[in-house]
Amino acid sequence: MLEFAVLGLLADAPMHGYELRKRLGGLLGGLRAFSYGSLYPTLRRMQAAGWITETGSGVAPPTSGLRPKRARVVYQLTAQGKEHFADLLADASPPSWADDRFDVHLAFFARTSAEVRLRILQGRRRRVADRRDGMRASLGRARERLDRYTRELAEHGLESADREVRWLDELIAGEQADTSSEAARPAMGPQPQPHHP
Amino acid sequence: MLEFAVLGLLADAPMHGYELRKRLGGLLGGLRAFSYGSLYPTLRRMQAAGWITETGSGVAPPTSGLRPKRARVVYQLTAQGKEHFADLLADASPPSWADDRFDVHLAFFARTSAEVRLRILQGRRRRVADRRDGMRASLGRARERLDRYTRELAEHGLESADREVRWLDELIAGEQADTSSEAARPAMGPQPQPHHP
DNA sequence: GTTAGCATGTAAGGAGTTACATGATTTT
DNA sequence: AAAATCATGTAACTCCTTACATGCTAAC
After folding, report:
1. What chain A residue is nearest to B106 in terms of C-alpha separation?
2. Whole-model pTM?
């Protein structure tokens, strides 16, 4: 998780730890901020694994000509690191459909092949739809026995799952529209998602 | 988390581990299923802490008069356990607003005091609204620079947060309606939530 | 010159998972 | 008698957090 995200950020540009943490927390749009207590050890492990190296070429410690005892450490991807990142990007196996993993995958979708994108979206859709169906079923069975709060919780959960499925359907439709125009399939618009009802 | 949920389930009725796991996963309406690898050690810890005891009074191992070597172990709350559960129910401090904790709290809201319910809902609302505002701000700043997928992720996250806030507002309004009718406040309907804009 | 923010790190521990191992009971 | 499901448990591990400790740089 953290590793994957770090690889993706360093694939854009070399960076030091503090900067990585800020980007993880803030902009990426939904990814949470990891603590330094997990970030720095992770950077160590990744360096030991040969995926990243320290580099002197980063931005120098601002102003002051003096070399500080403890300068910031800028990391960049190695060739192996790039390869490993590419492998992770190409992975469309069930673990990529898990909540956290999926978000990271999506954040790096621009660098993911169209084929893998589609498979991840479909896998994710299946998973969320299954959960939704399970929720719907158990709500249907138990609705009367549930107190107001438990029912509210269950209904809100169900609705969220439902919304996510519809959102995924839109993304999938978008992918298929792109693919069919790229692959020049004669005259087929975006096909409707085969709902397994 | 697990401890809290187990206490709540055992407060209803004595149960053995397998049963606990089923209830956690299925019905409760949004709570996830924990693995046995965490459930059984947790039961041990709780027993050592004096919150639960094994009991012979549970349902006997079905059919067969013979005492099996390895019978199922039915647990029930001790007096200390009940007290501890009550303490947890009454806790409305920030940690209760975290995603997982909040769900468990809500599932046991029927046994929570009206005052604590309101404080937890308001705390949760503040937390989610803050996250939403942060998302909205960084989306506003960066929307143009974001690729399609990152933007979709961010927008879906924002919308989910927004929906949760509105849901919480409804729950809060419901609480206040109850309170004001119970406390017989002269003629005030459910007051609108003081949006901190 | 002190506070705030930038920057890096370690140690201990929390809260769970997976994989494995075993055995009892019920159903087919 | 085989397969499914009920039932309990352990060992090793993953992944992250909190709390602490340190020091540099910029701003007030």
Report:
1. A149
2. 0.84
Judged by C1' against the alpha carbon of A39, the nearest nucleotide is D16
Residues 75-104 of B with CB under 7 A from strand C: 100
Which residue, A98, A80, A76, is CA-closest to A6? A76
Measure the CA–CA gap between A47 and A75, rounded to whole angstroms: 9
The per-residue pLDDT for range B89-134, each reduced to its tens digit, is 999 998 899 988 999 999 999 999 999 999 999 999 999 998 898 8
CATH topology classification for A2-58+74-100:
Arc Repressor Mutant, subunit A (1.10.10)
Q: What type of residue sits at position B45?
A: R
Domain limits, chain A: 2-58+74-100, 114-182
Q: What is the pLDDT of residues B146-187, one digit of tens each?
A: 899 999 999 999 999 999 999 999 999 999 886 766 555 455
Q: How far is the CA of B40 from the C1' of D9 (A)?
A: 7
- Fold classification of B2-57+74-100 is Arc Repressor Mutant, subunit A (1.10.10)
Rounded distance between C-alpha atoms, residue A141 and residue A118, angstroms: 34
As given in the structure block, the two tokens for residue B166 are 């509105």
> Residue A73, CB, less than 7 Å from strand D?
no
